[in-house]
Amino acid sequence: MQKAGVVGVVNKTLLFSLILFNITTISFAQLLPGNETQVNFSGYFDNFSVSVLYPSISLTKKLSETTNITGRYLVDMITAASIKSHNPTPKVDVVTTASGRVKNGENILPSFDEVRHEFNLGFAHLLGSRILTLDGIYSTESDYTSATLIGNITQYFAENDASLQLGIIRSWDKVFPKTKNWKKDKNVTTVNANFSQIISKRLILQLLTTYTDNNGLLSDNYQLVPINIEGKDSLFDPIHPDLRIRRAAALSLKYRLTQNSSLQLGYRYYWDSWDVKSSTYSVNYERYLSKYVILGIGLRSNFQSRAFFFKPTYLAPEEFMTVDIKLDSGYSNQFELKFILNGGNRHSFLPFLKDERVQYVFNLNFYLRHTDSPYWFNNSSNLFATNFNIGIRYRY
Amino acid sequence: MRIRILLLIGSAFLLYGCATVQPWEKEGLADPIMIINENPINAGIKEHHIDYREGAVGATGAESGGCGCG
Q: Using a CB-CB distance cutoff of 8 angstroms, which residues of chain A are in contact with residue B31?
């Protein structure tokens, strides 16, 4: 009788161990994304006359329990650019290939609508409790090409409660503006170290850090610097330092408020060798409106200081010069709205909501950027932009 | 100074988190609304236009290529 009891205990222990082993095995396998097709259609519009549409398609295919590959194709279609300002003869001119300037019914400059193609091929492999990923991105447009390699290793430990990700990103870019007869290089190397930890059954923490070395041509050579010399405006090419070291660290906390809602708080600090410093605060709230509908709202605020060589106006040519407004001091705010519709509602009168493998994502962002100096071509310090995304995810 | 405060807060949470959360307690954490960056492609789309309108980039968990001059 006693023996049978011991055997019973041993069997229960064995059974419990097997269940735990299974949970562990299953959960490690689940760390790798499964088969998925995602189609997105996004757009960006602002009051500086810039409109961008960018559809994309992404496919993830699981080759085995431990390996998957991902392919992605994205197109940026810039249907207008800032040069298409309301002033046909701007005092200071900047020419972009995305700009067609028309005067008296004739194109006085080449009229191109910029199209950028981006191809991404990725490979992920699960090796015990770690994931290795390798991605390649190639982006091409009429005046710029970029080839990027990304390698990441993610190690899970403490019974999957924590993960450490180390990554390296290397980009080789070529810049060849349509208005110039040269081709220059820009090289970017980024090192990432990210840490995630489950703190409690309601709280997750994430710490992200990056260090980036940018070198080569770091200016936008479509933006010309006006300098008044002896009563006459002359235009000069911008001159940026050819090295920029950029660092950023961010902390995010995700907290489960109730069974149906969560709150995410984030803070990022950024500083670089051009004296640009910024603090970014974010708060996001997500809530199930029903079993199939998730509502998300978010706020993001960024406060930035000015690059050491940025000036609203230059009186004489200097060693470094720029009119690039994103290097000016200022702040920005973004309001984010998100709806996720999960399929699987068999009682829905809409047939496309019945399939549980399908998810529909809608994002709408309103963005305001204020800079301490007005932008040269429209004399405005405030940029208002809308950014939307409509996406379909199909997981199988 | 700010980076030190950031690391200090992060370390404090990490020490607090040394107590392992048991597998059966993680059910709520697997919910999509509890996953940070649940849809990386969407996050990349959101970050892409900000990267080219502000002087600060990085530590967002999203990466993209090209000049994105729009």
A: 256, 262
Cα–Cα distance measured from residue A54 to residue A42, given in angstroms and rounded to the nearest whole number: 5
Lookup: tokens for A224: 């010309």
Give the model confidence (pLDDT) of A349-359 as tens digits.
777 778 889 99
A54 pLDDT tier (thresholds 50, 70, 90): confident
CB contact under 8 A, A256 and B65: no
CA distance, residue B28 to nearest chain A CA (Å):
7
Output the average pLDDT for chain A: 84
Mean pLDDT of A37-41: 95
Mutate to test the interface with A, among B49, B52, B64 (most CBs of A within 10 A): B49
Residue A281 has pLDDT above 70, yes or no: yes
Cα distances from B34 to residues A43, A79, A117, A288, B39, in angstroms, run 27, 37, 33, 12, 12
A249 and B3 within 8 Å at the Cβ level: the answer is: yes
For the record, the structure tokens of A174 come out as 């070529």
Residue A253, amino acid: L
pLDDT over 90, % of chain A? 61
pTM > 0.90: no
- Comparing CA positions, the residue from A149, A151, A125, A128 lying closest to residue A137 is A149
Q: Which residues of A touch B49 (CB under 8 A)?
A: 44, 52, 367, 385, 387
Stretch (H or E) spanning B47: helix B40-51
CA dihedral for A315, A319, A324, A327, sign (positive or negative):
negative
Residues B2-54 have pLDDT tens digits of 666 666 666 666 666 556 677 777 778 888 899 888 888 778 877 888 888 89
Architecture of domain A35-395: Beta Barrel (2.40)
Task: Establish if B42 touches chain A: CB-CB under 8 angstroms.
Answer: yes
For residue A366, the distance in angstroms to the closest alpha carbon of chain B comes to: 11
Calculate how close chain B gets to A212, using CA atoms only, in Å. Answer: 8
Q: Establish if B14 touches chain A: CB-CB under 8 angstroms.
A: yes
**Domain ranges (residues) in chain A:** 1-30, 35-395
Assembly ipTM: 0.82
Q: How far apart are CA A101 and CA A94, in angstroms?
A: 11
